[in-house]
Amino acid sequence: MEVSSMNVSVSDAKANFSELVRRAEAGESIVLTRNGKPVAVLREPGEARHLGQLRMAAMGKYRGQLKIADDFDDLGPEWDEYVS
């Protein structure tokens, strides 16, 4: 399933928010930009849930393969001196 998308500046989105929500409800992905750079995406909830499920599945494939040392959060005496 291919989702169409469009880029909209934040200022244009403010002026046309209701229309953008309607388009997102219809399945279109709206990329909000500031100074031409993407800052947020407006999409219907089902699409967001689907992307979240894909992310979780991708993370799950590494289960049992990554090892974290028991003392990973022990920053040592240098840090203790720095924060005191």
What string, H for helix and E for strand, traces the elements in order?
Answer: EHHEEHH
| Sheet with the most strands: spatial strand order | 1-2-3
Which fold does the CATH topology refer to?
A: YefM-like fold
Q: Report the average pLDDT across residues.
A: 85
Proportion of residues in extended strands: 15-25%
The biggest beta sheet reads: 3 strands, mixed
Question: In angstroms, what separates the terminal alpha carbons?
Answer: 55 Å
In total, the number of strands is 3
Please report the number of helical segments.
4
Helix content: 40-55%
Alpha carbon gyration radius: 21 Å
The low-confidence runs, each spanning 5 or more residues with pLDDT under 50, are none
Assigned CATH superfamily? YefM-like domain
Structure classification: alpha+beta
User: Architecture in CATH?
Assistant: 3-Layer(aba) Sandwich
CATH class: Alpha Beta
Based on Cα principal axes, name the global outline.
Answer: elongated
| Count of spatially separate domains | 1
How would you describe this structure to a colleague?
It is elongated, with a radius of gyration of 21 Å. The chain is α+β, with helices and mostly antiparallel strands and 84 residues long. The chain has helices spanning 10-15, 17-25, 45-60, 77-83, and strands spanning 5-9, 29-34, 37-42. A hairpin with a 2-residue loop joins β2 and β3. The chain has four helices and three strands, in the order βααββαα. The chain has a single domain (5-65), classed as YefM-like fold, CATH 3.40.1620. The protein has a three-stranded mixed β-sheet. 45% of the residues lie in helices and 20% in strands.
